[in-house]
Structure formats: C-alpha cells, structure tokens
Amino acid sequence: MRLSQYFLPLLKETPKEAQIASHRLMLRAGMIQQSSAGIYSWLPLGKKVLDKIAQLVREEQNRAGAIEIMMPTIQPAELWQESGRYDDYGAEMLRIKDRHERDMLYGPTNEEQVTDIFRSHVRSYKALPLNLYHIQWKFRDEVRPRFGIMRGREFLMKDAYSFDIDSDAARQSYNRMFVSYLKTFARMGLTAIPMEADTGPIGGDMSHEFIILAETGESGVYFHKDWLNTDLVTSVDYSEDLQPVVDRFTSLYARADEKHDPANCPVDEGDLMSLRGIEIGHIFYFGEKYSEPMGATVAGPDGSNIPVHMGSYGIGVSRLVGGIIEASHDDKGIIWPRAVAPFDVAVVNLKPDDDGCTACAEDLYARLGAAGGDPLMDDRDERPGAKLASIDLIGIPWQIVIGPRGMANGVVEVKNRATGEAVEVSPESALSMVMDGAA
Ligand code: ATP
Ligand code: MG
Q: Ligand 1, closest atom to CA 201?
C-alpha cells in the first residue's frame, strides 16, 4: 500500500476524551472513529488489525476442532423467553420492535440462538461432541462505555458453544477451549492468565476469565510469578489428554483482587505478584442450563432422551486490539507484534524528489511484495521527521528508511520498532532481514 493513496487520518493532537494509551493511540493512528457513545467505525488501519486478530482466533478455533458458522445480530425475543433470560438480562439488552410489533433484540450473546440451531438438527449422541462458533458483532448497552473499543456498546466477539453427552465429555470440550485460548493469546505475544471466575448472567458451574496484564486494566489480579515465564502451551497437542495440562496451569495461583485472601494464600510472598489486567476471554461450563428449558436433547446410547451439556467460550476480538496496544506501546506510539501488525514493514522514502532514493524505494517495495510481505510505502510529500514520527506512531514492526546520505554509500537504514535497533545495510540485506526477521 502506498501511503499517498491510502486513507490514514492521523491526528496530531492527543484527543482530550481519551484516558488510556490504547484509546489515545487508536485515535491518533487513525484506526477508529467514534460514531456515538461506545460505538465506533473502524478505519482502514484499524480494520486491518481487527481482521488479523479475528483470523488468528479463527485458525486456533479451527485447530481445536470448533466449526465456524454465522448467526444473526438480531434475534427474536421468543428464544430468550424460552430460556428465561429475556426478563433477567436487564437494561444491557437493546430491545427492538419490528414493523409488525414483534419483539426483537440485538444479541448480547448467542446461547439461545445456537441452542435453537442444535435442537433443530441434532438427534443422536453420535453427532457429539460438537462445537460451533462465530465471530460476530454484539451489542450491550453498557452503563459506562469507556476506554474506546475496550468497553464499547457494539463490539466484535468470537463466541463458541460446545455440546456434549455428559459432564465428563463437556469437561474435555472445556479443556480444549482452555488450551486453545492460551495458544491464541501466545501467538499475539500476550501473557494471558486464566483466573477462576464467577459465572454471572451466563450461569453455570465452571468458569475462567483470561486476563492480560496492563496497568490500566479494570481487574486486579494476584498471581504466582511463574505465570510470567511459563512457556505457554504452544507444544500441546489436542490428541493428548488435556486434563493434566489444564491442571498444571490451574494449579498455578491466580486470583481476582476481591477473592485473594493474604492469610490463606498458598504462594510465598516473594513469589506473589499483584498487577492489573484486562479480561480478554471468558469460558463457561453450564451443563443443562439452556438445553433443559429449550428442549435440546439427544438420544443417548440406550435410546433415552437426554439434555446436552453445554459450555460457551468468548473472546473479545475488538477489545484485543486495545489490549494488545496497552501491553505493547511506548511514548512514540504502538508497537505491533508481527502476527497482528497491519503491515509487515514500512518503506520510508525520505526524499521522493530524489531519483536515486525513489528508484531504491520502488525496487524494495516491489520485491517485499513479491516475497510475500505486506509493505507500506511512505511516499508522502512530508518532512522526514514527520514521516518517521507517523511510522513510529502506527507501530509497523520494521522500517526501511531510504535517504540521500545513505544512498551515496549504497545503504539504507533498517529499524526494528520493538527494540529500536537500527543498522545501515545494503538494500539486499534489508530485504532479507525484514523477510526472515521475527519481531
Ligand atoms: P466484562 O466483565 O469486561 O464486562 P463480560 O464478563 O460481561 O465482560 P463476557 O460475557 O464474558 O463479558 O464476554 C466475553 C468477552 O467479550 C469478554 O471476555 C471481553 O473480552 C469481551 N467483552 C465483553 N463486554 C465487552 C464490551 N463492552 N466491549 C468490548 N468487549 C467486551
Ligand atoms: Mg466475563
């Protein structure tokens, strides 16, 4: 992409309404624009990151055996009346009437909708286990939408729903999602701590919240310091028994502030850490809570009809965009982990009116693209300082800076955004550094 032809509305001023780094940086980097309280448009740079995160989540869901579907955003009230949640859910639910005066709602979550799909089609335990997920916009009329897209009213969530014949099988489905969450967040360069959680309005028996560490997080967490250096479950294979893996992780201490009891904490004071964090995922096992009232039953091995055991598994896809920025930025701007970066590399031509610089920039830009990279070319008619500052701000992992001084010696500068290290090398080496380098 050529910056001269892109739509990247950068802000020079720090927006007053933004209280935390991610909100400030997303506005300044032209990623989002507020439409009304807690509701945002995603501009090209933001949309690109959102899609990358969604794709990574999708890959890990598929790997764990979940199957993608797409359910609507607007749901009929009847389904929620069947489960009993229509009245319970309260003011967070956006209730709508259609032209025929039918009660509809903008889905805050999809347990009822997916249970309806299941009961319409699945008759036998032989179809189990089954895990269906989608990545879809949700609406919750939050009392205090804030921190930009971190606590929005409209937000993008991945929600998966598992169906099993009994609680033992459901536990295995839960474990697969537990492990897949750790894998997903590790790929984004995040340390995510699963913390035993209350089940809230979803209800149920077993639940973990996944918290990523950030000073501005809304949740306080006490945890064993080993969480910071565990080589997360990247090598765990879904064909092995996951119970010992999950047990190993859940045995490592992690408690919400309000549940931490210093007098009875099993962790030595020297090993205990207390930080703030952001909830980016939440998983639940709730057994027959929806299948029973909604009649989602299957014929078991002996022919008798049994309500299925269900779990649900959410990831805040849009919240993750902010969460990753909270975990990875400096005073110059965002530092994207390569896996979710909007572009792999920025080619910064400091002097577009210099033929040598432009020939080199064009050549590198073309070869980076041909090598499978996704380069952003800064070919704007701007001061060098302004170019470098905006590329730092938008956080592209690598920068190749081309200027007349380097050109005279046949070199360009390659800078790693995360470490700040810069070296002068030939354009040839710049290409291989960027394409082979992990950032
Ligand atoms: P919170 O405790 O932050 O209000 P929740 O427990 O109500 O979240 P869940 O129902 O568990 O949320 O939803 C699953 C995930 O969706 C959460 O872990 C979070 O990442 C994301 N999420 C929930 N509410 C919002 C919101 N208002 N804006 C953005 N993301 C959200
Ligand atoms: Mg939650």
A: 10
Strand ordering across the sheet containing 103-106: 74-76, 103-106, 94-97
345-354 pLDDT, tens digit per residue, is: 999 999 999 9
216, 282, 286, 315: residue to mutate for ligand 1 pocket, most atoms within 8 A of CB:
282
Crossing angle for the helix pair 317-327 and 44-63, to the nearest 10 degrees: 110
The mean-pLDDT minimum among 195-204, 209-218, 269-278 falls in 195-204
Domains in the chain (CATH in brackets) are 3-334 (3.30.930.10), 343-436 (3.40.50.800)
| Cβ density class 332-369: b for 16+ within 10 Å, e for less | ebbbbbbbbbbbbbbbbbbbbebeebeebbeebbebbe
pLDDT at residue 219, as a whole number: 87
Does the pTM of the predicted model rise above 0.90?
Answer: yes
Cα–Cα distance, 361 to 406 (Å, whole number): 12
Residue with CA nearest ligand 1 atom 16: 316
